Amino acid sequence: MFKVKPLAFESLGARSMATFIETSDLKVVIDPGVALAPDRFGLKPHVLEEKAKKALWLSIEEHVEKSDVIVISHYHFDHFNPDMPNIFEGKTLLIKDPGTWINLSQKTRARNFLKKLKGFDVKPIYVDRKVFKWNGTEIKFSHPVPHGASTERGYVVEVCIRAEKTFIHTSDVQGPILQEQVDFILIEDPDFLIVDGPSTYYDNSYQSIDLKAAIESLNKIIKQTRLCKMIVDHHLTRDIDYKQKIGDVYKIAGTAGKWVGCAAEFLGEEPRLLEADRKGLYSKS
Asked: CA–CA distance from 260 to each of 83, 182, 195, 247 (Å)?
């Protein structure tokens, strides 16, 4: 048994990369958080975004409750919820090391989060560069890699779950752009990959050179691994024209007979790019 279920992503209505994985040995939730952009196009979140966020959080809570292991790849609020420490009661909590390879903002958030956990039956385990095993299931973590092309936004750990199949969740690599982000994927050789994709929605700060590097990296992964399915969703799907922005990736995947799409499409649903369409939502209300 090896099941992957996206729980909350931009294509499902809000910012998140929450994912549920089930193997024959255990159930895992990666990055149980969901958030909304406080400002896009000079507009606050639309009521439909607020409703989507609430519904997605309920799904995350439900899956955390029935899971054995919870993973937190870094400390941005769309990847964990520090206001709900009770959901981690009795769970194995695998978290990015809050003391090394981390910027000040995330270090402060992590410290406050760990204080809140002290009232519950949970002992956080730091995971950077470590491997954990449950019978036939292995969870392996990368060396911390930059959140994007630089370390300005801190670091994240990529997650590989290997059982009947091999699955990788990249967290926030914003591409991937850098070779160190790509290397973990190439070495672990996944059947299934969830990657956040390039941040093409930035007006000026995401350089064309970074987009080119991200496309080249995604194409390399398609060509050089046994990949069958790749969900590209999170940073990329904050852009209403996301498919055109990485059109070459879809083309290469199609030629190779490999599936590429967003989380909603993987679930057989129509994408709900609510943040990307915030101006449109307000114009209709």
From this structure: 34, 17, 11, 11
**Measured distance CA(90)–CA(263) in Å, rounded:** 29
CB atoms within 10 A of CB 43: 13
Q: What tens digit of pLDDT does each residue of 199-240 get?
A: 999 866 567 889 999 999 999 999 999 999 999 999 999 999
Q: What is the mean pLDDT of residues 16-29?
A: 99
Domain ranges of the chain: 2-284
Does residue 67 contact residue 20 with C-beta atoms inside 8 Å?
A: yes
According to DSSP H, which parts of the chain are helical? 47-65, 104-117, 179-188, 208-224, 242-245, 247-256, 263-266, 278-284
3-state secondary structure of 192: strand
Q: CATH number of 2-284: 3.40.50.2300, 3.60.15.10, 2.130.10.10, 3.40.50.2000?
A: 3.60.15.10
> Tell me, what amino acid is at 257?
G
Per-residue pLDDT tens over the stretch 81-110: 999 999 999 999 999 999 999 999 999 999
CA distance 35 to 198: 19
pTM over 0.90: yes
d(CA 170, CA 51): 27
By residue count, the chain amounts to 285
pLDDT given for residue 208 in this prediction: 86
Region for 90 from its dihedrals, namely left if φ exceeds 0, alpha if ψ lies in -120 to 50, beta otherwise? left
- Sheet with 192-195, side-by-side order of all strands: 131-134, 137-141, 159-162, 166-169, 192-195, 229-232, 259-261
Which pLDDT score, from 0 to 100, does residue 202 have?
84
